[in-house]
Amino acid sequence: MTIADIRSTTDAKMNQSIAAFQNNLTKIRTGRANPALLDSIHVEYYGSSVPLSQVANVALIDSRTISVQPWEKSMGAKIEKAIRESDLGLNPASMGDLIRVPMPPMSEERRKEMTKLVRTEGENAKIATRNLRRDANDAIKKLVKDKLASEDEQKRAEAEIQKVTDRHIAEIDRLVAAKEAEIMAV
């Protein structure tokens, strides 16, 4: 493996950790409705537990209401029960075939809890990024030890990897700030 391979692999892995972080952020509840909130809910379907999106159509009615349209009429009660029993604090209401899931307004205390959760997720993403930097630097040091690269190349590569790391950490900080602003908006 060359220094260029290490650099490109590290950059790709850091991009994956940011993508995973963004995915985690979509699951954190804000005051606004977001169909991704219901992605973690599983429903009992013919003896097996399946994601809600596989048994119903999930969409937005307006900025504060999610609609869930079951594909089978018999699934309505099971879906409603699964949403109610989830830890999201949602109270679905059945209207014929359609299940409406209104988003209750969040209290100031709950908003602050959510921003703490966002910061924790951000810190976890930064730790993952720093671990990738450490692994890349270790791989470069191994190349130098095995005399496949010079010490000058090592210093240059470590500086480049640090720049990549700084860029990814700045992106994580930007995502955290944006999500916090979204949560605190009333």
Q: What report would you give on this structure?
A:
Residues 21-184 form the Ribosome recycling factor domain. Pfam families: RRF. Residues 140-167 form a coiled coil. Keywords: Coiled coil, Cytoplasm, Protein biosynthesis. This protein is α+β, with helices and mostly antiparallel strands. It folds into two domains: 3-27 and 107-184, Topoisomerase I, Chain A, domain 4; 35-102, Gyrase A, domain 2. The chain is built from four helices and six strands. Strands 3-4-6-5 form a four-stranded antiparallel sheet, with helices on one face.
How many H/I helices? Answer: 4
Fill in the CATH topology of the largest domain.
Answer: Topoisomerase I, Chain A, domain 4
**Which strand order do you get reading across the main beta sheet?**
3-4-6-5
Mean pLDDT: 88
What Rg do the Cα atoms give?
Answer: 22 Å
The largest sheet is: 4 strands, antiparallel
Described by the principal axes of the CA atoms, the overall outline is elongated
Given this structure, which CATH class of the largest domain is correct? Mainly Alpha
